[in-house]
Request: fold
Amino acid sequence: MPIYVIVAYIIFCLTPLGLAFSIAARRRKVEREIAAFTASEPDC
Amino acid sequence: MRKKSLVDSMLIVLSVTVFFVALGMVFFYAPREATMGEVQRIFYFHVASAWVGFFGFFVTFVGGIGYLATNNRRWGILAFSSAEVGLVYISMTLVTGMLWAKPAWGTYWTWEPRLTISAVQWLLYVAYVMLRGSVLSPEREARFAAVYGIAAFVTVPLSWFAIRWWRTIHPQVVSSEGMALAPKMIHTLLVSIATFTLVYVVLLRQRIALEHARDRLAALRLRDETSTL
Reply:
């Protein structure tokens, strides 16, 4: 199998996976901040 | 909420499964192309990736119109999220296209109409994603993004018709006479397109959820700031 095909399919597999991890990481960070805000709020 | 995460989990499992099925079809089901040989196998995911990129920009276009018509932030979120996912797919299309071009044309890049329009399109959407966070007012930002997303969409039909209107060396697989491919190649291409579309849906849902979480955080910060004044 030519190297070009192997490299192309590595890109096809890893790029969507990379985007999924990037979105998940950003979401986790935002949710941690939301949790921190909610925890610091005084009980009414 | 629980129902939503169950749907997301099911979609993730389904998309991973069909991804492996599509990969299997590319390497074990689709026949070896006579002229280009093994390197032609790049074509299946390359076309699928371009399709999803174009579809993503179409959703941005629709989201932009929806936002301008209704002023509902949900449309803006849809438009921006889709542009980001679409941009990743178009980037993948450009890079893997270059990997195919080297053995097929003897060069990674040539300034022919389709490739030139693709490069301009890529730059336009990179600018869209980069600029969206730079305008101060969220209202102005969303309005600007909607107009920009609608205007930038012109590159999609231009890219599609470039290989039909102008002299180009880019292959034309779909023409008025149908697809110039063997049946097994068409099956593989269609499964690849369905797979990448499904992966796009999964990524788009995750990206939209991120934007909603950011909105919740912004609302909490605003409430915190106003309560300390």
